[in-house]
Protein backbone atom coordinates (compact mmCIF):
# COMPACT_ATOMS: atom_id res chain seq x y z
CA UNK A 1 0.00 0.00 0.00
CA UNK A 2 1.43 3.34 -1.07
CA UNK A 3 1.06 5.83 1.79
CA UNK A 4 2.79 8.68 -0.06
CA UNK A 5 2.73 10.98 2.99
CA UNK A 6 3.15 9.77 6.60
CA UNK A 7 0.81 11.22 9.24
CA UNK A 8 2.05 13.88 11.61
CA UNK A 9 2.40 12.12 14.99
CA UNK A 10 -0.39 12.75 17.48
CA UNK A 11 0.06 15.79 19.73
CA UNK A 12 -0.14 15.41 23.55
CA UNK A 13 -3.54 17.15 23.81
CA UNK A 14 -5.14 14.76 21.31
CA UNK A 15 -3.52 11.77 23.02
CA UNK A 16 -4.96 12.91 26.36
CA UNK A 17 -8.40 13.31 24.81
CA UNK A 18 -8.34 9.68 23.63
CA UNK A 19 -7.12 8.43 27.02
CA UNK A 20 -9.97 10.24 28.80
CA UNK A 21 -12.36 8.61 26.34
CA UNK A 22 -10.98 5.17 27.21
CA UNK A 23 -9.05 4.78 23.93
CA UNK A 24 -5.41 3.80 23.49
CA UNK A 25 -3.68 6.72 21.68
CA UNK A 26 -1.18 4.41 19.99
CA UNK A 27 -3.97 2.22 18.62
CA UNK A 28 -5.88 5.28 17.40
CA UNK A 29 -2.75 6.68 15.77
CA UNK A 30 -2.19 3.35 13.98
CA UNK A 31 -5.84 3.31 12.89
CA UNK A 32 -5.70 6.77 11.37
CA UNK A 33 -2.36 6.02 9.74
CA UNK A 34 -4.18 3.25 7.88
CA UNK A 35 -7.07 5.60 7.07
CA UNK A 36 -4.59 8.14 5.73
CA UNK A 37 -2.84 5.45 3.69
CA UNK A 38 -6.10 4.41 2.05
CA UNK A 39 -7.07 8.03 1.51
CA UNK A 40 -3.79 8.83 -0.28
CA UNK A 41 -3.97 5.64 -2.28
CA UNK A 42 -7.41 6.64 -3.49
CA UNK A 43 -6.33 10.10 -4.66
CA UNK A 44 -5.78 10.74 -8.36
CA UNK A 45 -2.16 10.55 -9.45
CA UNK A 46 -0.54 13.95 -10.00
CA UNK A 47 0.37 14.81 -13.61
CA UNK A 48 4.07 15.15 -12.74
CA UNK A 49 6.59 12.71 -11.31
CA UNK A 50 9.62 13.24 -9.09
CA UNK A 51 11.52 11.15 -11.62
CA UNK A 52 11.16 13.90 -14.25
CA UNK A 53 14.28 15.98 -14.79
CA UNK A 54 15.37 18.76 -17.15
CA UNK A 55 19.12 18.57 -17.71
CA UNK A 56 20.90 21.92 -18.05
CA UNK A 57 24.35 20.51 -18.83
CA UNK A 58 25.10 19.96 -22.50
CA UNK A 59 27.92 17.93 -24.06
CA UNK A 60 30.86 19.88 -25.51
CA UNK A 61 30.13 21.50 -28.93
CA UNK A 62 26.42 20.49 -28.70
CA UNK A 63 23.63 22.88 -29.66
CA UNK A 64 20.98 23.94 -27.15
CA UNK A 65 17.98 22.93 -29.21
CA UNK A 66 15.53 23.07 -26.33
CA UNK A 67 15.93 26.82 -25.80
CA UNK A 68 15.15 27.39 -29.48
CA UNK A 69 11.66 25.94 -29.06
CA UNK A 70 8.66 28.30 -29.06
CA UNK A 71 7.56 29.63 -25.68
CA UNK A 72 4.34 27.63 -25.76
CA UNK A 73 6.31 24.36 -25.97
CA UNK A 74 8.76 25.43 -23.27
CA UNK A 75 5.89 26.24 -20.93
CA UNK A 76 4.44 22.81 -21.65
CA UNK A 77 7.76 21.17 -20.77
CA UNK A 78 8.21 23.10 -17.55
CA UNK A 79 4.64 22.42 -16.41
CA UNK A 80 5.41 18.68 -16.54
CA UNK A 81 8.34 18.96 -14.10
CA UNK A 82 8.17 18.79 -10.30
CA UNK A 83 7.81 22.31 -8.97
CA UNK A 84 11.40 22.52 -7.66
CA UNK A 85 12.84 21.46 -11.02
CA UNK A 86 10.50 23.80 -12.87
CA UNK A 87 11.56 26.79 -10.77
CA UNK A 88 15.23 25.97 -11.32
CA UNK A 89 14.87 26.44 -15.07
CA UNK A 90 14.79 30.19 -14.40
CA UNK A 91 18.56 30.00 -13.82
CA UNK A 92 19.26 28.74 -17.36
CA UNK A 93 19.05 32.10 -19.12
CA UNK A 94 17.20 35.42 -19.25
CA UNK A 95 14.66 33.90 -21.61
CA UNK A 96 14.00 30.93 -19.35
CA UNK A 97 13.42 33.27 -16.41
CA UNK A 98 9.92 34.08 -17.58
CA UNK A 99 9.03 30.58 -18.77
CA UNK A 100 8.37 29.13 -15.32
CA UNK A 101 6.29 32.16 -14.28
CA UNK A 102 4.11 31.85 -17.37
CA UNK A 103 3.83 28.02 -17.38
CA UNK A 104 0.61 26.56 -15.95
CA UNK A 105 1.66 25.67 -12.41
CA UNK A 106 1.60 22.07 -11.20
CA UNK A 107 2.36 22.00 -7.47
CA UNK A 108 2.57 18.74 -5.51
CA UNK A 109 3.71 19.66 -2.03
CA UNK A 110 5.00 16.16 -1.22
CA UNK A 111 7.63 16.74 -3.94
CA UNK A 112 9.13 19.71 -2.10
CA UNK A 113 11.11 17.83 0.54
CA UNK A 114 13.77 15.26 -0.38
CA UNK A 115 12.36 11.75 -0.64
CA UNK A 116 14.11 10.60 2.54
CA UNK A 117 12.56 13.40 4.56
CA UNK A 118 9.12 12.95 3.03
CA UNK A 119 8.95 9.31 4.05
CA UNK A 120 10.71 9.44 7.41
CA UNK A 121 8.80 9.02 10.65
CA UNK A 122 11.48 10.32 13.02
CA UNK A 123 9.21 11.55 15.79
CA UNK A 124 6.78 14.37 16.40
CA UNK A 125 9.24 17.28 16.23
CA UNK A 126 10.87 16.17 12.97
CA UNK A 127 7.59 15.36 11.24
CA UNK A 128 5.98 18.64 12.27
CA UNK A 129 9.13 20.51 11.30
CA UNK A 130 9.05 18.99 7.81
CA UNK A 131 5.36 19.85 7.50
CA UNK A 132 6.05 23.47 8.51
CA UNK A 133 8.85 23.77 5.95
CA UNK A 134 6.49 22.50 3.26
CA UNK A 135 3.85 25.00 4.40
CA UNK A 136 6.31 27.89 4.09
CA UNK A 137 7.49 26.75 0.66
CA UNK A 138 3.91 26.43 -0.61
CA UNK A 139 3.14 29.98 0.54
CA UNK A 140 6.16 31.35 -1.34
CA UNK A 141 5.33 29.45 -4.53
CA UNK A 142 1.64 30.43 -4.55
CA UNK A 143 2.54 34.08 -4.00
CA UNK A 144 5.35 34.16 -6.60
CA UNK A 145 3.61 32.41 -9.48
CA UNK A 146 1.09 34.59 -11.34
CA UNK A 147 -0.92 31.59 -12.62
CA UNK A 148 -2.80 29.95 -14.09
CA UNK A 149 -2.72 27.00 -11.67
CA UNK A 150 -3.27 23.78 -13.57
CA UNK A 151 -3.08 21.29 -10.69
CA UNK A 152 -2.30 21.63 -6.98
CA UNK A 153 -1.95 18.71 -4.52
CA UNK A 154 -1.72 19.87 -0.90
CA UNK A 155 -1.37 16.77 1.28
CA UNK A 156 1.81 17.33 3.31
CA UNK A 157 1.37 20.67 5.06
CA UNK A 158 0.46 20.92 8.74
CA UNK A 159 -2.64 23.12 8.83
CA UNK A 160 -3.58 23.04 12.53
CA UNK A 161 -1.20 25.93 13.27
CA UNK A 162 -1.74 27.72 9.93
CA UNK A 163 -5.51 27.70 9.42
CA UNK A 164 -5.53 31.38 8.45
CA UNK A 165 -2.82 30.67 5.91
CA UNK A 166 -4.95 27.90 4.37
CA UNK A 167 -7.76 30.40 3.90
CA UNK A 168 -5.35 32.73 2.08
CA UNK A 169 -4.12 29.85 -0.07
CA UNK A 170 -7.64 29.06 -1.15
CA UNK A 171 -8.25 32.72 -2.03
CA UNK A 172 -5.09 32.72 -4.16
CA UNK A 173 -6.05 29.47 -5.87
CA UNK A 174 -9.53 30.78 -6.64
CA UNK A 175 -8.15 34.05 -8.05
CA UNK A 176 -5.51 32.33 -10.19
CA UNK A 177 -7.79 29.91 -11.99
CA UNK A 178 -7.15 26.59 -10.20
CA UNK A 179 -8.33 23.65 -12.30
CA UNK A 180 -7.51 20.57 -10.19
CA UNK A 181 -7.22 20.64 -6.41
CA UNK A 182 -6.41 17.83 -3.96
CA UNK A 183 -6.56 18.99 -0.33
CA UNK A 184 -5.94 16.50 2.51
CA UNK A 185 -5.39 16.98 6.26
CA UNK A 186 -2.69 14.85 8.02
CA UNK A 187 -5.08 14.21 10.07
CA UNK A 188 -4.92 15.95 13.49
CA UNK A 189 -7.17 17.44 14.66
CA UNK A 190 -9.94 15.32 13.19
CA UNK A 191 -12.52 18.10 13.32
CA UNK A 192 -10.46 20.82 11.62
CA UNK A 193 -13.03 22.81 9.63
CA UNK A 194 -12.20 23.33 5.97
CA UNK A 195 -12.51 27.04 5.06
CA UNK A 196 -15.56 27.61 2.90
CA UNK A 197 -13.44 29.61 0.44
CA UNK A 198 -13.10 26.58 -1.84
CA UNK A 199 -16.85 26.80 -2.55
CA UNK A 200 -16.13 29.83 -4.75
CA UNK A 201 -13.63 28.12 -7.07
CA UNK A 202 -15.60 28.33 -10.29
CA UNK A 203 -12.69 27.17 -12.48
CA UNK A 204 -12.31 23.76 -10.80
CA UNK A 205 -12.67 20.68 -12.98
CA UNK A 206 -11.50 18.15 -10.35
CA UNK A 207 -11.72 18.40 -6.54
CA UNK A 208 -10.63 15.86 -3.90
CA UNK A 209 -11.02 16.61 -0.18
CA UNK A 210 -9.78 14.34 2.63
CA UNK A 211 -9.92 14.22 6.45
CA UNK A 212 -11.65 17.54 7.07
CA UNK A 213 -14.83 18.72 8.72
CA UNK A 214 -16.95 20.05 5.90
CA UNK A 215 -18.04 23.69 6.40
CA UNK A 216 -21.67 24.37 7.27
CA UNK A 217 -23.38 25.30 4.01
CA UNK A 218 -26.46 26.82 5.65
CA UNK A 219 -25.15 30.37 5.27
CA UNK A 220 -23.49 29.95 1.87
CA UNK A 221 -25.10 32.02 -0.93
CA UNK A 222 -27.39 29.89 -3.06
CA UNK A 223 -25.72 31.24 -6.21
CA UNK A 224 -22.49 29.42 -5.30
CA UNK A 225 -21.73 26.99 -8.11
CA UNK A 226 -19.08 24.72 -9.58
CA UNK A 227 -19.90 25.27 -13.26
CA UNK A 228 -16.90 23.31 -14.57
CA UNK A 229 -16.50 20.55 -11.97
CA UNK A 230 -16.32 17.12 -13.65
CA UNK A 231 -14.93 14.94 -10.82
CA UNK A 232 -15.49 15.15 -7.06
CA UNK A 233 -13.84 12.99 -4.40
CA UNK A 234 -14.88 13.12 -0.72
CA UNK A 235 -12.58 11.06 1.50
CA UNK A 236 -13.18 10.52 5.24
CA UNK A 237 -15.01 13.80 5.75
CA UNK A 238 -17.17 14.87 8.66
CA UNK A 239 -20.24 16.20 6.90
CA UNK A 240 -24.03 16.18 6.89
CA UNK A 241 -26.44 15.08 4.18
CA UNK A 242 -27.50 18.70 3.52
CA UNK A 243 -23.88 19.64 2.79
CA UNK A 244 -23.53 16.74 0.36
CA UNK A 245 -26.77 17.79 -1.32
CA UNK A 246 -25.50 21.37 -1.51
CA UNK A 247 -22.36 20.55 -3.46
CA UNK A 248 -24.10 18.04 -5.77
CA UNK A 249 -26.96 20.43 -6.54
CA UNK A 250 -24.45 23.10 -7.60
CA UNK A 251 -22.29 20.95 -9.87
CA UNK A 252 -24.26 20.94 -13.15
CA UNK A 253 -21.67 19.09 -15.27
CA UNK A 254 -20.35 16.66 -12.64
CA UNK A 255 -19.67 13.24 -14.17
CA UNK A 256 -17.84 11.27 -11.46
CA UNK A 257 -18.57 11.20 -7.73
CA UNK A 258 -16.23 9.27 -5.45
CA UNK A 259 -16.97 8.78 -1.74
CA UNK A 260 -14.41 6.98 0.39
CA UNK A 261 -14.28 6.23 4.10
CA UNK A 262 -17.51 7.91 5.17
CA UNK A 263 -18.02 7.04 8.85
CA UNK A 264 -21.06 9.18 9.61
CA UNK A 265 -24.81 8.94 9.08
CA UNK A 266 -25.50 10.17 5.59
CA UNK A 267 -28.12 9.79 2.92
CA UNK A 268 -27.08 10.13 -0.69
CA UNK A 269 -29.76 11.41 -3.06
CA UNK A 270 -28.76 11.40 -6.71
CA UNK A 271 -30.61 13.95 -8.81
CA UNK A 272 -28.29 14.88 -11.65
CA UNK A 273 -28.51 15.36 -15.39
CA UNK A 274 -24.75 14.84 -15.79
CA UNK A 275 -23.53 12.09 -13.41
CA UNK A 276 -22.14 9.04 -15.19
CA UNK A 277 -20.28 7.20 -12.44
CA UNK A 278 -20.74 7.00 -8.65
CA UNK A 279 -18.11 5.06 -6.65
CA UNK A 280 -18.57 4.40 -2.94
CA UNK A 281 -15.82 2.61 -1.02
CA UNK A 282 -15.52 1.60 2.65
CA UNK A 283 -18.52 3.68 3.69
CA UNK A 284 -21.83 3.40 5.49
CA UNK A 285 -25.00 5.18 4.35
CA UNK A 286 -28.54 5.18 5.63
CA UNK A 287 -29.77 5.40 2.06
CA UNK A 288 -28.42 5.62 -1.47
CA UNK A 289 -31.26 6.79 -3.69
CA UNK A 290 -30.92 7.10 -7.45
CA UNK A 291 -33.85 9.47 -7.95
CA UNK A 292 -33.32 11.05 -11.35
CA UNK A 293 -30.01 10.30 -13.09
CA UNK A 294 -30.62 9.89 -16.83
CA UNK A 295 -26.90 9.58 -17.71
CA UNK A 296 -25.77 7.38 -14.83
CA UNK A 297 -23.91 4.33 -16.17
CA UNK A 298 -22.10 2.95 -13.11
CA UNK A 299 -23.01 2.63 -9.45
CA UNK A 300 -20.07 0.90 -7.78
CA UNK A 301 -20.13 -0.11 -4.11
CA UNK A 302 -17.43 -2.07 -2.33
CA UNK A 303 -16.17 -2.50 1.21
CA UNK A 304 -19.39 -0.97 2.55
CA UNK A 305 -20.97 -2.08 5.81
CA UNK A 306 -24.16 -1.81 7.85
CA UNK A 307 -24.24 0.31 11.00
CA UNK A 308 -25.70 -1.30 14.10
CA UNK A 309 -27.23 -4.07 12.00
CA UNK A 310 -29.25 -1.56 9.93
CA UNK A 311 -28.70 -2.08 6.21
CA UNK A 312 -28.29 0.65 3.63
CA UNK A 313 -31.34 1.18 1.44
CA UNK A 314 -30.35 1.12 -2.22
CA UNK A 315 -33.26 2.70 -4.08
CA UNK A 316 -33.19 2.74 -7.86
CA UNK A 317 -35.50 5.14 -9.60
CA UNK A 318 -34.95 6.75 -13.00
CA UNK A 319 -31.59 5.59 -14.39
CA UNK A 320 -32.26 4.36 -17.95
CA UNK A 321 -28.56 4.03 -18.84
CA UNK A 322 -27.41 2.21 -15.72
CA UNK A 323 -25.09 -0.42 -17.14
CA UNK A 324 -22.94 -1.62 -14.21
CA UNK A 325 -24.07 -2.15 -10.63
CA UNK A 326 -22.49 -3.76 -7.57
CA UNK A 327 -21.37 -5.12 -5.25
CA UNK A 328 -24.86 -5.58 -3.81
CA UNK A 329 -24.64 -7.43 -0.51
CA UNK A 330 -27.77 -8.69 1.25
CA UNK A 331 -25.90 -8.41 4.55
CA UNK A 332 -25.36 -4.66 4.03
CA UNK A 333 -27.94 -3.54 1.45
CA UNK A 334 -31.71 -3.59 1.04
CA UNK A 335 -32.82 -3.16 -2.57
CA UNK A 336 -35.88 -0.98 -3.16
CA UNK A 337 -37.88 0.04 -6.20
CA UNK A 338 -40.42 2.75 -5.46
CA UNK A 339 -42.37 1.47 -2.45
CA UNK A 340 -41.35 -2.17 -3.01
CA UNK A 341 -38.70 -3.66 -0.76
CA UNK A 342 -37.07 -6.69 -2.38
CA UNK A 343 -37.12 -9.67 -0.04
CA UNK A 344 -36.52 -13.37 -0.55
CA UNK A 345 -39.40 -14.67 -2.64
CA UNK A 346 -40.70 -11.24 -3.71
CA UNK A 347 -42.62 -11.57 -6.97
CA UNK A 348 -40.70 -9.48 -9.46
CA UNK A 349 -42.63 -7.28 -11.90
CA UNK A 350 -41.59 -4.76 -14.60
CA UNK A 351 -41.65 -2.01 -11.95
CA UNK A 352 -39.00 -3.86 -9.93
CA UNK A 353 -36.68 -4.60 -12.83
CA UNK A 354 -33.71 -2.69 -14.21
CA UNK A 355 -33.42 -3.94 -17.81
CA UNK A 356 -30.47 -1.66 -18.65
CA UNK A 357 -27.98 -3.39 -16.33
CA UNK A 358 -25.55 -5.60 -18.25
CA UNK A 359 -22.82 -6.03 -15.60
CA UNK A 360 -23.93 -7.05 -12.11
CA UNK A 361 -21.79 -7.80 -9.05
CA UNK A 362 -23.15 -9.52 -5.93
CA UNK A 363 -21.52 -10.49 -2.67
CA UNK A 364 -22.99 -13.79 -1.51
CA UNK A 365 -22.08 -15.83 1.55
CA UNK A 366 -23.01 -19.19 0.11
CA UNK A 367 -23.21 -20.80 3.54
CA UNK A 368 -25.62 -18.21 5.00
CA UNK A 369 -29.32 -18.93 4.58
CA UNK A 370 -30.53 -15.32 4.15
CA UNK A 371 -27.90 -14.51 1.50
CA UNK A 372 -28.67 -17.59 -0.53
CA UNK A 373 -32.45 -17.15 -0.34
CA UNK A 374 -32.13 -13.56 -1.56
CA UNK A 375 -29.90 -14.30 -4.55
CA UNK A 376 -32.53 -15.72 -6.99
CA UNK A 377 -34.88 -12.81 -6.27
CA UNK A 378 -32.17 -10.19 -6.78
CA UNK A 379 -31.06 -11.80 -10.05
CA UNK A 380 -34.65 -11.66 -11.34
CA UNK A 381 -34.59 -7.88 -10.90
CA UNK A 382 -31.87 -7.66 -13.57
CA UNK A 383 -33.14 -9.79 -16.47
CA UNK A 384 -30.61 -8.64 -19.09
CA UNK A 385 -27.35 -9.16 -17.21
CA UNK A 386 -24.63 -10.53 -19.48
CA UNK A 387 -21.69 -10.50 -17.04
CA UNK A 388 -22.17 -11.67 -13.47
CA UNK A 389 -19.60 -11.27 -10.70
CA UNK A 390 -20.09 -13.25 -7.52
CA UNK A 391 -17.91 -12.39 -4.54
CA UNK A 392 -18.00 -15.35 -2.18
CA UNK A 393 -18.07 -13.81 1.28
CA UNK A 394 -16.62 -15.45 4.36
CA UNK A 395 -19.36 -17.18 6.30
CA UNK A 396 -17.89 -17.89 9.72
CA UNK A 397 -20.40 -20.36 11.10
CA UNK A 398 -22.64 -21.60 8.25
CA UNK A 399 -26.37 -21.19 8.93
CA UNK A 400 -27.69 -23.98 6.75
CA UNK A 401 -26.98 -26.50 4.00
CA UNK A 402 -27.70 -25.09 0.56
CA UNK A 403 -27.34 -27.92 -1.88
CA UNK A 404 -28.28 -28.38 -5.53
CA UNK A 405 -31.89 -29.22 -4.57
CA UNK A 406 -32.33 -25.75 -3.05
CA UNK A 407 -31.14 -24.03 -6.21
CA UNK A 408 -33.21 -26.24 -8.51
CA UNK A 409 -36.33 -25.48 -6.47
CA UNK A 410 -35.74 -21.75 -6.93
CA UNK A 411 -36.97 -22.07 -10.52
CA UNK A 412 -35.86 -20.48 -13.77
CA UNK A 413 -33.84 -17.28 -13.54
CA UNK A 414 -34.08 -15.46 -16.86
CA UNK A 415 -30.64 -13.83 -16.91
CA UNK A 416 -28.88 -17.12 -16.05
CA UNK A 417 -30.75 -19.23 -18.56
CA UNK A 418 -30.62 -16.91 -21.57
CA UNK A 419 -28.35 -13.88 -21.02
CA UNK A 420 -25.21 -14.44 -18.96
CA UNK A 421 -22.21 -15.34 -21.08
CA UNK A 422 -19.49 -14.56 -18.51
CA UNK A 423 -19.41 -15.59 -14.84
CA UNK A 424 -16.55 -14.42 -12.61
CA UNK A 425 -16.57 -16.15 -9.23
CA UNK A 426 -14.27 -14.35 -6.76
CA UNK A 427 -12.69 -15.71 -3.58
CA UNK A 428 -13.44 -19.35 -4.36
CA UNK A 429 -12.69 -21.63 -1.40
CA UNK A 430 -14.20 -24.85 -2.71
CA UNK A 431 -16.80 -25.46 -0.01
CA UNK A 432 -19.99 -27.43 -0.67
CA UNK A 433 -22.27 -24.40 -0.82
CA UNK A 434 -20.12 -22.73 -3.49
CA UNK A 435 -20.01 -25.94 -5.54
CA UNK A 436 -23.81 -26.33 -5.27
CA UNK A 437 -24.36 -22.82 -6.68
CA UNK A 438 -21.85 -23.35 -9.49
CA UNK A 439 -23.36 -26.71 -10.43
CA UNK A 440 -26.83 -25.14 -10.67
CA UNK A 441 -25.41 -22.26 -12.70
CA UNK A 442 -23.55 -24.53 -15.14
CA UNK A 443 -26.64 -26.68 -15.69
CA UNK A 444 -28.91 -23.65 -16.26
CA UNK A 445 -26.79 -21.23 -18.28
CA UNK A 446 -27.56 -21.91 -21.93
CA UNK A 447 -25.43 -19.14 -23.48
CA UNK A 448 -22.49 -19.25 -21.08
CA UNK A 449 -19.14 -18.84 -22.82
CA UNK A 450 -16.56 -18.19 -20.11
CA UNK A 451 -16.20 -18.88 -16.39
CA UNK A 452 -13.38 -17.33 -14.39
CA UNK A 453 -12.73 -18.77 -10.94
CA UNK A 454 -10.60 -16.45 -8.79
CA UNK A 455 -9.10 -18.33 -5.86
CA UNK A 456 -9.27 -16.89 -2.35
CA UNK A 457 -5.89 -15.48 -1.40
CA UNK A 458 -3.81 -17.69 0.95
CA UNK A 459 -6.74 -20.05 1.50
CA UNK A 460 -5.32 -23.30 0.13
CA UNK A 461 -2.60 -25.09 2.09
CA UNK A 462 -0.93 -26.69 -0.95
CA UNK A 463 -1.23 -27.19 -4.68
CA UNK A 464 -2.79 -30.61 -3.98
CA UNK A 465 -5.39 -28.96 -1.75
CA UNK A 466 -6.18 -26.41 -4.44
CA UNK A 467 -6.53 -29.04 -7.19
CA UNK A 468 -8.79 -31.18 -5.01
CA UNK A 469 -11.20 -28.23 -4.67
CA UNK A 470 -11.01 -27.08 -8.28
CA UNK A 471 -11.21 -30.46 -10.08
CA UNK A 472 -14.94 -31.00 -9.35
CA UNK A 473 -15.69 -27.85 -11.37
CA UNK A 474 -14.17 -29.30 -14.52
CA UNK A 475 -16.26 -32.47 -14.33
CA UNK A 476 -19.58 -30.66 -13.83
CA UNK A 477 -22.13 -30.98 -16.60
CA UNK A 478 -22.66 -27.73 -18.48
CA UNK A 479 -25.74 -26.71 -20.47
CA UNK A 480 -23.51 -24.68 -22.76
CA UNK A 481 -21.12 -27.32 -24.11
CA UNK A 482 -18.62 -24.83 -25.53
CA UNK A 483 -18.10 -22.85 -22.32
CA UNK A 484 -14.60 -22.64 -20.92
CA UNK A 485 -13.35 -22.49 -17.32
CA UNK A 486 -10.26 -20.57 -16.27
CA UNK A 487 -8.85 -20.69 -12.74
CA UNK A 488 -6.65 -17.84 -11.51
CA UNK A 489 -5.23 -16.46 -8.28
CA UNK A 490 -5.94 -13.15 -6.62
CA UNK A 491 -4.16 -10.53 -8.77
CA UNK A 492 -3.31 -7.99 -6.06
CA UNK A 493 -4.13 -9.16 -2.54
CA UNK A 494 -2.37 -6.26 -0.82
CA UNK A 495 -4.50 -3.34 -1.95
CA UNK A 496 -7.93 -4.80 -1.20
CA UNK A 497 -9.19 -3.89 -4.65
CA UNK A 498 -8.27 -0.21 -4.33
CA UNK A 499 -6.28 -0.07 -7.55
CA UNK A 500 -9.12 -1.58 -9.54
CA UNK A 501 -11.58 0.69 -7.78
CA UNK A 502 -9.62 3.73 -9.00
CA UNK A 503 -9.83 2.46 -12.57
CA UNK A 504 -13.52 1.62 -12.39
CA UNK A 505 -14.76 5.01 -13.57
CA UNK A 506 -12.90 5.02 -16.87
CA UNK A 507 -15.29 4.77 -19.78
CA UNK A 508 -12.71 2.68 -21.66
CA UNK A 509 -13.09 -0.08 -19.05
CA UNK A 510 -16.10 -2.08 -20.19
CA UNK A 511 -16.38 -4.11 -16.98
CA UNK A 512 -15.42 -2.12 -13.86
CA UNK A 513 -15.31 -5.29 -11.73
CA UNK A 514 -13.07 -7.36 -13.98
CA UNK A 515 -9.99 -7.19 -11.72
CA UNK A 516 -11.63 -6.96 -8.29
In short:
This protein has about 525 residues and is of the alpha/beta class.
List keywords for this structure.
elongated, 516 residues, 15 helices, 14-stranded parallel β-sheet, five-stranded mixed β-sheet, 20% strand, alpha/beta, 19 strands
Structure in words:
The chain has 516 residues and is of the alpha/beta class. It has a domain at 288-293 and 309-516. 29% of the residues lie in helices and 20% in strands. The protein is built from 15 helices and 19 strands. β17 (422-428), α13 (432-444) and β18 (450-455) form a beta-alpha-beta unit. The longest helix has 21 residues, at 124-144. The protein is elongated and about 80 Å long. It starts with 11 loop residues before the first helix and ends in a 13-residue tail after the last helix. Residues 116-123 have low confidence and may be disordered.
Strand content: 15-25%
Oligomer: single chain
Please tally the β strands and state the result.
19
Gap between N and C termini: 16 Å
Arithmetic mean of pLDDT: 83
Number of helices: 15
**Overall 3D shape:** elongated
Rg over alpha carbons:
26 Å
Q: Give, in spatial order, the strands making up the sheet with the most strands.
A: 1-2-3-4-5-6-8-10-12-15-16-17-18-19
Low-confidence stretches: 116-123
The description of the largest β-sheet is:
14 strands, parallel
The helical percent reads 25-40%
Estimated structural class: alpha/beta
Please specify the SSE layout and strand pairing.
Blueprint: H1 12-20, H2 25-42, H3 71-78, H4 83-88, H5 94-102, E1 105-108, H6 115-119, H7 124-144, E2 149-154, H8 163-175, E3 180-184, E4 206-210, E5 231-235, H9 241-249, E6 256-260, E7 267-271, E8 277-281, E9 287-292, E10 298-302, E11 312-318, E12 324-329, E13 333-337, E14 340-341, E15 359-364, H10 369-380, E16 387-392, H11 404-409, H12 414-418, E17 422-428, H13 432-444, E18 450-455, H14 463-474, E19 484-488, H15 498-503
Parallel strand pairs: 1-2, 2-3, 3-4, 4-5, 5-6, 6-8, 7-9, 8-10, 9-11, 10-12, 11-13, 12-15, 15-16, 16-17, 17-18, 18-19
Antiparallel strand pairs: 13-14
